[in-house]
Amino acid sequence: MSKEPRSRAGQTKRPGRAGREATPADETPIIHGAIPPRDVLLRFIADHPEQASKREISKAFGLKGETRVELKALLKSFEEDGLLEKRRKSLVRPGALPPVTVLDITTRDVDGELIGRPAEWLDDAGVAPAVLIRQSSGARKDKAPVAGLGDRVLAKIFPAKERGGPAYTGRVIKVLDKKKNSGMGVFRTMPGGAGRIMPIDRRGDEMDVEAQFTAGAKDGDLVEIDVVRMGRYGLPRAQVKSVVGSVASEKAISMIAIYAHGIPHIFPDAVIREAEAAGSATMAHREDWRSLPLITIDPADAKDHDDAVYAEPDTSPDNPGGVIVTVAIADVSYYVRPKSALDREAQKRGNSVYFPDRVVPMLPERISNDLCSLKEGVDRPALAVRMVFSHEGRKASHTFHRIMMKSAAKLSYQQAQAAIDGAPDDKTGPILETILKPLWQAYKIMTVGRNRRQPLELDMPERKILLKTDGTVDRVFVPPRLDAHKLIEEMMIQANVSAAETLEKKKQALIYRVHDAPSLAKQEVLREFLQTLDISLVKGGNMRSNHFNGILAKVADQPFQEMVNQMVLRSQSQAIYSPENIGHFGLNLMKYAHFTSPIRRYADLIVHRALVGSLGLGEGGITPDEEAVLDDIAAEISTFERRAMAAERDTVDRLIAHHLAERVGEEFDGRVSGVTKAGLFVTLPEYGADGFVPISMLGRDYYIYDEAHQALSGEKTGLGYRLGDTVRVKLAEAVPLAGALRFDMISEGRKMPTAVRSFHKSGRRKGGETRRQPGTRPPRGRR
Fold first, then answer.
1. Contact yes or no for 718/730 (Cβ under 8 A)
2. Rounded to an integer, what distance in angstroms lies between the CA atom of residue 579 and that of residue 514?
3. How many CA atoms lie within 13 Å of 36's alpha carbon, on the beta-carbon side?
4. Which range among 228-232, 544-548, 588-592, 648-652 has the greatest average pLDDT?
5. pLDDT averaged over the chain?
6. How far is CA 85 from each of CA 410, 418, 491, 519, 588, rounded to the nearest angstrom?
7. What residues form DSSP beta bridges with 242?
8. Which of 67, 110, 241, 679 is the most interior residue, by most CB within 10 Å?
9. 324 CB contacts (<8 Å, ≥6 apart)?
10. DSSP string over 83-126
11. What residues does 91 pair with on adjacent strands?
């Protein structure tokens, strides 16, 4: 018989199977069939995440009839108080790790046990929680993989049952990446022809390189190394394997991000051989749509084209004024089959990663840029969806088809937009009336439906970096947002919706793209902030995207527009992949799955396979083995997506820091983009770069942090800084390898609103603290 888990105090047994109960002397008795005390219920949820659905909780405590209704109301109150968050069908404590998490094993504890931390963790979420890795022993050695220091693993997470150690324990499901005795660093020349490797991150070690192992590296080169000896005394020794190039070049900077985040960037020989051996698709199980003039519209520098579109009026008398929109997507599932070398590598990468100078693709170029790229005038296999819309923008029906197509034209966004705006060129002129104008008419109709749906409409300009020929930054700019962009975006969204609807109707397992509503805790932070601007936010758990749109409309063209957009963005949950559907809050859609980019996203490839299999469209369908592990796949690719975003962001930060390194001491106009207890984050709009102003550099006053107002305010002067304030700063330090900028504040703070100043007198209020800030001296009498 298995033992019941013990409480953290070592006294109370938890309810497990129905009928078990405990009555410790120092706690309210737990009566089987009655609602347990609040603290017992919260502790049970924290300790049993796998039993944290309402059904499992009822079963554990033997609740039936009216007591289940009481339980539902109690759990709802926990959510409203911010004590619990809903994930899928279960309840978890805020900030809790998901049941399956990708961990990096970073160190050992005093007992020699391995300790891991989440591979990706938001900076504003505090220190990433530690997880004690439980290795299999004895008879279980052959059942679970053995992990080591430096490995990246997929692990099943359990709350720790013992106090005083990590909050979680983990059981390794799969070792994703084994540590290798290799890495990167910056080469520095030493006397006698020898060298020293300087680490590219703060946790790395310096290493010595003997003269015969420098491989011609020059001072300041970024190099790949092999560690050849780790002794007890002295620095580790390494040898240079290859020279990437000067650390001043952008190529080197993106390689730092690739290595730092552990992004696979070299395809194994078996994957390349499999890709090169692939041949052209046949017409088996395909409809011949080569006469339909589908076209691709992409960025001007795009090398792969995985989606094509076409639109025409619906001639059916049952749909007057309606349109038919066709979206064709490259048929990657034909070439990348389950359990093949290509498939294993694609799953390992999860998605393509985009840097200013390069792309780390999910699939080899033979597949992504050739066989699966919908090239102009070339036969290509595709999976197409044909969607019928009414004149009111409502989707009446849709059907999926496995086809052979031939793109009629390859256009850039700017090219297509110019033609619609009255400036066609030699390519767009002949297709303006027959292809482009019908597409724009369809988009106009679809916009009616989009406006009725009211997805979240954040106004956050996306900055792009233009590089010089030597790979350094030329300029940073915000490209215009064209109707051509919006047209393709809306057609792709509707294709994704159609994929989810079809698979649900077929009762086929799939991976959804889900986006949860903002947590009640984040809603409350936003609500308090908006109150400082005399803007109200509706209360309750029934928040919809149009509530946020109303707020964004109120602040349009106001001085604090960007500040409010930032705060609304921060209040949002993160979109993830999941086999459980909770809808997509931001798009205001109940059913949504990524279908339109299988060249660069593994989730889309899974959806393609699910469609092929459930609709009987031939080879390459989803397998039962894949269906059984969709939870694990979704967890992995969600983590890999965050990994890619972090690597891309870090590269941009390093690029800008390198670009500004020679301008230390200069002054810049900036905007306060973040307020913390330790200081201010300031963005330079001209560069899209963030830097930090420590609180000690704000002045001699004693500064108090008020979360509700997103402000730091001087206690004596009443002057301070708020999110969104325009300020003047001086660049004090730039660290290119870390991508870090530090500023000194030049601008004097402005007079804080009465509500902020009154906070000082009260001493403490929800969301704010008056304790001494790092780097400041307390006023007299506060020592």
1. no
2. 9
3. 24
4. 588-592
5. 84
6. 46, 48, 33, 7, 20
7. 224
8. 679
9. 311, 312, 313, 314, 386, 387, 388, 389
10. S-EEETTEEE-TTPPPSEEEEEEEEE-TTS-EEEEESS--GGG-
11. 86
Cβ contact 194:211 at 8 Å: yes
**What confidence category does residue 772 fall into, taking pLDDT thresholds of 50, 70 and 90?**
very low
Q: How far apart are CA 579 and CA 88, in angstroms?
A: 9
The tokens for 385 are 């969806």
The CA distances from residue 623 to 274, 334, 510, 579, 704, in Å, are 20, 14, 11, 15, 58
The rounded distance, in Å, linking the Cα atoms of 710 and 530 is: 10
Q: What is the pLDDT of residues 722-747, one digit of tens each?
A: 888 889 999 999 988 778 899 999 99
Distance CA 761, CA 232 (A): 57
Instruction: Provide φ and ψ at 121, rounded to 5°.
Output: -150, 130
Query: How buried is 179 (Cβ within 10 angstroms: 0-12 exposed, 13-18 middle, 19+ buried)?
Result: middle
H helices present in 435-543, as ranges: 437-453, 483-505, 520-531
Query: How far is the C-alpha of 432 from the C-alpha of 427, rounded, in Å?
Result: 9
pLDDT of residue 780: 34
Least confident range of 29-33, 218-222, 278-282, 745-749: 29-33
Q: How confident is the model at residue 396 (pLDDT cuts 50, 70, 90)?
A: very high
Which residues on adjacent β-strands are paired with residue 288?
404
The closest alpha carbon to 712, from 668, 763, 676, 764, belongs to: 676
Q: What is the dihedral of CA 601, 380, 406, 350, to 10 degrees?
A: 0
The whole-number average pLDDT for the span 568-588 is: 93
pTM of the predicted structure, to 2 decimals: 0.75
Q: What is the pLDDT of residue 51?
A: 61
Which CA distances in Å does 528 have to 171, 567, 672? 41, 11, 19
pLDDT tens-place string over residues 459-491: 777 888 888 887 778 888 888 999 999 999 999
Q: What span, in angstroms and rounded, lies between the C-alpha atoms of 650 and 737? A: 10
